[in-house]
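Cross-check.
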Amino acid sequence: MRKTLLTASAAIAAALAACGPAPAQPGQAGAPVETRPPNAPEQKPAFAGQTRGPGLSSNTIGQYQVLASGLDHPWALAFLPTGEILVTERAGRLRVLTKDGKLSPAVAGLPDVFASGQGGLLDVTLDPAYATNHLIYWSYAEADGGVNGTAVARGKLVLGAAPKLENVQVIWRQAPKMDSALHFGGRLVFARDGKLFITTGERSILPGRVQAQHLDATLGKVIRINADGSIPADNPFAKTAGAKPEIWSLGHRNIQAAALDSSGELWTVEHGARGGDELNHPEPGKNYGWPVVTYGEEYSGKPIPDSVTQKDGFEQPFYYWDPVIAPSGMAFYQANLF
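Predicted model, tokenized:
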């Protein structure tokens, strides 16, 4: 039996996982995987199984090999067709892990990075035609005077003893920029049609948080652009007066996890409030609630002001975690090991 498994991780490590020789056994659903008390016990899910779902057991034995160590807050990986691995360090360095396990010097040519708090060099991904054009894309926090925001750039990767980037172009910038070192989002996913999805955060501070609901701002959104930074004509708000035409969906808090499923559909996992981390299937033009409709509570333990858990016109998460797990990465696994 072939199964699809969605995994959400709380950290990214430069490690390789390989399954041992023991054959996989069918998974068994059991008691809820969460044994800790919920952060917001007074809140009730909108439907059965939306939170505290049953655990899935497996007899598969994993083996792990450390490929690199000593990295400074590694944030993302991208696998080159020639066998090397690109690794971002949040402090502002892009490294190449060679096939023989050696880390390169920092790749030259990156723009200046605002490396403070949660900001820095974030995701990296390959152009769908990387084998011929050698283009890579990366997200990062960019400073502009006393404010900052998420930006996305691309450039041609030149490998070698001193790897570098050529023809660097910034293709997208979050607007407006804010005076905050939190909630940059930053995950990059190419769709099968070649369009680029970008996830953003609402910067945590109140002036940014409310803009997750505003169509004239790209805070707290899923963004969809063409590979050169231009706007697809079929985006849901491309013809809406006053709206940012690159917006795909809105009402998000801080998405750091995104991946395509086997049918090419986008799924995201976002850092929600405490007890409100969410798994969503962002669809064009839809509103996922934050901060108006949300589960969980403030990290101070106080209620989220003027919010409810359900309201007409707002999407419910496919799943939410209570208590908090702080997910920052996800992947779909499609095989029969689990």
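The CA atoms of residues 196 and 227 lie 6 Å apart. The helical segments are 130-133, 206-209. Passed to J.P. for a second look.
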